[in-house]
Amino acid sequence: MTRSMFIKVIGAGAGGGLPQWNCNGQNSADARHGVPTVTPRTQASVAVSADGRQWVLLNASPDLRQQINATPELHPDREGPPRNSPIKAVVLTNGDVDAVAGLLCLRESQPLTVYGSARVLDVLAGNSIFEVLNADLVKRKTMELGQSFAVEGPSGPVGLTIDAFTVPGKIPLYLEDEEKGTGGSFGTEEGDTVGLKVTEDASGKHFFFIPGCSGLDDPLRERLNGAPLLFFDGTLYTNDEMIVQGLMQKTGDRIGHMNMSGPKGTLEQMAPLDIARKIFIHINNSNPVLRDDSPERAAVEAAGWEVSYDGMEVRL
Ligand code: MLT
Ligand code: MN
């Protein structure tokens, strides 16, 4: 049998999900009321496994309990001890609420490993509520940027190697400090937003997971060129769409995400790159690509992109 990695999108939405609890925008309202062309999405997270038994979560969204319940691969083994879980590790790409709050769902004395950059682990260390993850059982390990590491669960390596690298981005919303940094950086530092290259040890197959990214710089271009599979930040279609829809007075640029459209947008910027499969994730509830029949959905598909959904399975 040819080996292949198991990759499952357990949440495709951005912060707030679709529908968002307090949002009466067109997408949220339609998703809430069962319009068949607007499928609800929970907040962004991907589960990955080399063997189909031991799983690693890429980010832990506030919807994690619901996501685990909806994903048979993540259920306890019925033949196993009274408490068990196939989730062996969580790897964090940033400290935003939608990336880390799900850790609190993993608090029932279950051994696992949590990986994050020094910056992101500082966020956890600075919030004592995360101490609910008993440090005797839940190990926190710092990912050194640019240095690959074998992902380890409580009983050893799980057959995946990860490379974490810094990408253009922004400090979490709740840590923004107007006085800090220059040019609207709000105190952003290296390691606040990282991308992941996930490699299966047995086959050498790999993919990239970059759910948050504010721009495509040359190092990132070089890294992604030739990639077999990419999950990428699909927050907004148009820079000002949240303003136009009356949802929030902020642009995509301001919240630290690339937009899909426009000259600086992902479609145009990535077009010259050779990437075999390109999938948008972390898609905000304002984004028209969430409507199966929208012209914007047709445009991203024509540009070779897929729009992920909860439960999407990808094999490499
Ligand atoms: C983001 O992706 O920009 C954040 O999730 C925003 C937020 O924390 O709501
Ligand atoms: Mn987010």
List keywords for this structure.
316 residues; alpha/beta; 7-stranded mixed beta sheet; 8 helices; binds D-malate; binds manganese (II) ion
Explain the overall architecture:
It is a single chain. With 316 residues, this protein is of the alpha/beta class. It has helices at 26-32, 64-69, 97-100, 118-125, 218-224, 241-244, 266-270, 295-302; strands at 6-11, 45-49, 55-58, 87-91, 112-116, 138-142, 149-153, 156-166, 194-200, 206-210, 230-233, 278-281, 305-307, 313-315. The strands form two sheets. Strands 6-5-4-3-2-1-14 form a seven-stranded mixed β-sheet. The longest helix is centred in the middle third of the chain and has 8 residues, at 118-125. The radius of gyration is 19 Å and the shape is globular. The model has no long low-confidence stretch (mean pLDDT 97). It binds D-malate and manganese (II) ion (MN). Residues 14-15, 96, 98, 282 line the site of manganese (II) ion.
Write the layout of secondary structure elements.
Elements: E1 6-11, H1 26-32, E2 45-49, E3 55-58, H2 64-69, E4 87-91, H3 97-100, E5 112-116, H4 118-125, E6 138-142, E7 149-153, E8 156-166, E9 194-200, E10 206-210, H5 218-224, E11 230-233, H6 241-244, H7 266-270, E12 278-281, H8 295-302, E13 305-307, E14 313-315
Parallel strand pairs: 3-4, 4-5, 5-6, 10-11, 11-12, 12-13
Antiparallel strand pairs: 1-2, 1-14, 2-3, 7-8, 8-9, 9-10
The structure holds D-malate (MLT) and manganese (II) ion.
The site of manganese (II) ion has 5 residues, from loops.
